[in-house]
């Protein structure tokens, strides 16, 4: 098992740059879509790499490993006041040197993390084309730079700041999902080769779009599918459920429709019912149409997407 680089607290940098590093230094960046795997050195990094390798093998695509050095707010303080000019100049010089040293440490740590991640992938998938990218920016900005060349994005459910908290999702996940139209897989610790999936379906336009995107997914044809609706026992919603099932079946998918009650499967709410159903049937991953409501509405009606990500440790495929 590959030992990944230890996180450093000195993740500081001052500019924006990208450093590509494929299997060989002479190999150009991929010209076809790639699996974009975002790693941060937390406990989920290995899982992110494993899911990236699985998807890359199934889709015969290269892998782009991305590590982002988050640019922090300036640590420099107001040095005006009673101290003299010479003292201020000395302190500024010391802070400048500290910034430079911190940036070098962050770069070295990022390169080591990318090297370890690449080595881990190549152990299980020796034929993979793996490209390494180190970028100094915010996560969303970095992902947007690569989005046109990405078939799928894989993120860890928890960032390194919350790697011991099993009820916390990465703080930047929602902003990324809302900003990009690419499928995003959110994973947690521990890779298990997927053999099934369940679509959380509520009859909304977002859910119908998710079904259409599953129809366009080559990998899903090799998996056992379930499409699940909770507490919508009326003719309109039930009709939409079975129409979605037929759409998938006509596209060549093996899928079963389920209309379940939250009182039977959960604790009286939709998310608990979905997670209980998944656990009972040992389903590998969730598929959900993500953030169907406008962001401001979340404060009033909540977000099933966020609640599901918080409730489960299973992989969740988010489709916009």
TrEMBL record:
| Top-level taxon in the UniProt lineage | Bacteria
Q: Which residues form the UspA domain?
A: 35-187, 198-320
Q: Which SUPFAM superfamilies does this UniProt record tie to the protein?
A: Adenine nucleotide alpha hydrolases-like
Q: Where is the signal peptide?
A: none
What CDD domains does the record tag this protein with?
USP-like
By sequence similarity, the record places it as follows: Belongs to the universal stress protein A family.
Name of the featured protein: Universal stress protein
**Species name for this entry?**
Psychrobacter raelei
